[in-house]
Write a structure and sequence with these properties.
The protein has 207 residues and is mainly β. It contains no helices and 14 strands. It has a single domain, classed as Galactose-binding domain-like (Jelly Rolls, Sandwich), CATH 2.60.120. The chain is 0% helix and 43% strand. The strands form 3 sheets. Strands 5, 6, 7, 8, 9, 10, 11, 12 and 13 form a 9-stranded antiparallel sheet that branches. A hairpin with a 5-residue loop joins strand 2 and strand 3. The chain is globular. The N and C termini lie close together (10 Å).
Length: 207
């Protein structure tokens, strides 16, 4: 086959970190090539289950909680309660376990419904195993600090670009009003519904 530049836009089923692409004629164009994070995007991002309860309390954790009435299971967007950390310091976090790897495109936050407490800014960390976390970084390689809330109930949305592909996400408060209190949702999609744009890479017989 002659050398040529090929650009594909395909919908594929993702298996772990590898995938295969089948051409129109049935030939395999690419097989078991790792996906660069920035090349993965959701075709139709949706809420991943915090507000709806599809993510159960058993898959929500936090660095601390004020008491059982304000634990991580209450840190859901538009809930009557929220997650409240025990101490207010920059070592606190709210962790979401999606159970499977997910493509995360956006994070939504609110403050405490019945008091003037909210998170003003935060960072995001992600992990495959729930043990080793990496902090999401900005264009210059620094930890990206996202703007949070300025009142109790307004929903503040922050886009992740590039997206994050991971099983675990942590929202890590960096500044707050009165006390660390948060409700959250995450938008994105689960593997199997991602759209991947490929340039001329990973296709040694065609590039």
């Amino acid at each position: 086959m002659d050398r040529q530049e090929v650009t594909l836009l395909v919908e594929v089923t993702l298996l772990e970190k590898d995938f295969g692409v089948t051409g129109i004629g049935g030939e395999v164009l690419l097989y078991r090539q790792k996906i660069p994070m920035q090349n993965v995007a959701c075709k139709d991002p949706k809420a991943l289950g915090m507000q709806s309860g599809k993510i159960p309390n058993s898959r929500l954790k936090a660095s601390s909680e004020w008491n059982r009435d304000w634990g991580p299971g209450y840190g859901r967007l538009n809930g009557r309660r929220c997650w409240i950390a025990r101490p207010s310091n920059t070592n606190q976090w709210l962790q979401i376990d999606f159970k499977y790897r997910a493509t995360v495109t956006e994070i939504l936050t609110q403050g405490r419904r019945d008091a003037n407490q909210w998170v003003r800014s935060y960072t995001v960390a992600y992990s495959e195993d729930g043990i080793n976390f990496k902090t999401y970084r900005g264009n210059k390689g620094q930890d990206k600090v996202f703007s949070g809330n300025t009142d109790r109930n307004s929903v503040v949305r922050q886009e992740l670009s590039p997206v994050v592909v991971a099983r675990f996400i942590r929202i890590q408060p960096k500044s707050w009003q009165s006390h660390i209190s948060m409700r959250a949702e995450v938008h994105g999609c689960f593997e199997g519904t991602a759209v991947i744009g490929l340039g001329c890479w990973g296709l040694p017989t065609m590039c």
